[in-house]
Amino acid sequence: MKHCLTIAGSDSCGGAGIQADLKAFSANGTYGMSVITAITAQNTQGVFDVQDINPSVIQHQIEAIFDDIRVDAIKIGMVSRPETIEIIAATLKKYPLPPLVIDPVMISKSGYDLLQPEAKKALIEMLLPMATLITPNLPEAEVIVGYKIDTIELMQKAALDLHKLGCKYVLVKGGHLENDATDVLYDGAQFHLLHSKRLETINTHGTGCTLSSAIAANLAKGLHVKAAVEEAKAYITEAITHGFKLGHGVGPVHHFY
Length: 257
Ligand code: PLP
Hints:
binds pyridoxal-5'-phosphate; phosphomethylpyrimidine kinase activity; UDP-N-acetylmuramoyl-L-alanine:D-glutamate ligase; alpha/beta; EC 2.7.1.49
């Protein structure tokens, strides 16, 4: 059995964050573990409150896992504050690093800031260079590179610029462009364009969390990055296709076991 770790925020309604990550790890045939960075009070209609976890408790969660258990892949999601980012980077550096997928979570679909603006610099300087793969969507990529991205050519330029930050692979997700979604995967030498049909549904809560966790699970199982991304895309496409109504707002994607 391969072991995956998510370092991310809790979503009380279970659609995104830690809860989505653990479901995706499990559904993709791995054992899931979690380091919780923040607790959100959240439902399908929005995020209402956030409590950041003390850096020392984040450190101790990471140490408790690594001092005892082999970790085959890590996914990092919501990291909210500079202090959170600093302690994660410093603590992970004490151990051999398995494949690391970073989903640079910034704003929830409902418009709530999940990354404080002052944490952007720490994310770029301390965490992104450690990543095997980063998986920004277009608004997140725009915040990091500092220009508007609205064509495939600009997605490729952004992938080049993001790669210069030090991560090995970049997946710029094109779901926010109109028409069918094309994602750009860049490995430092070649671009791979990954096409998928646009799915007509509002129930997409947790899409980004689920995709990055499915990729991490595939990396833990030994797949190369391109294959890990392609298989995870097939998984998220099914999960979105079967996204369902929950509560009164944006429902979650459906995990398949
Ligand atoms: N809440 C938490 C804790 C998250 O980590 C994320 C991840 O992006 C979200 C909410 C946002 O999810 P979504 O934008 O899919 O609603």
